[in-house]
Please model this.
Amino acid sequence: HSEGKARLMTREPGGKRIALVHQNSNLDILDGPKVTNIPDLMLSRVNGDKTVYAILWQGSYIYLSTGIGIVVVDPAKREIRDTYRPSLNGADIRVNGLVAADGFLYAATAEGLKRADANAATLSDYRRWETLSGSGLAAGACQGLALLSGELVVRRGDSLLIRKGTSWRPLPMDAWPVTGFNASGDRLLVCHSQSGKGKVRSIDSAGAVREVLQTNDISLPRQSVRDGSAHWVADQNNGLLRIEGGRSERVFPNSPIGTASGDLLVDRGQVWAAAGSVNDAWNYTYNPNGLYRLKEDFW
Model:
């Protein structure tokens, strides 16, 4: 697989494959034990922000929302198929989220909420994209987008708006800043953090707050999913958390706790990996993760 910390992932609709994007914009396709790497975006010499801010697997293609627009990847051919720049003049534009609904592609961008016919043959033509506003949705940048029970939810700063019919209405707010949000089943899970403490609010499509997750382990949550009566929370500071019945536990998959960016050594059937490294100036990087060992398939 590729180097770098994992940033985003999504599952193939109706399939078992998983698309995994790393912080360096490298893309891996996981199919059981098989990993297919598509490094085209990472290796591209195009100028601009190639950071991937959201990922959508729709039909036969993977759509990467980046700082230069929407990069369309064909996993079958292992290549970039196209790039859409839904800006007012066709220039690079940051896209923070993308969803497919009602036969359209909706994009949350630095210029606001955009929409284009998903079946149009030339979505790379910026004139195919229209900017949506009005009916409760003010013009301006959008920081995220989700689909909750068939309804669009747009993030603008620390505010969330849901589309009901042809109008938009705000969802219940919290005084804490929003650090992430996503739809999981029939709930919208909104992550918050303030002064080192975090929480996740579970909101239904009617706008009612159904549950608030708040434990000592939640510090800086970024994303959450529901799994029956349990919730899984990805916390930037405390890793993967499982929360059920008001109690939380930190979950450590069978893997190193961080990227092993130092030396590797194989000795008598064991793999040793050094987490520490130096920068280009040969100075230490304050990495406290130490040394990892893989023995009999366990780290």
Q: What stands out?
A: The mean pLDDT is 91.
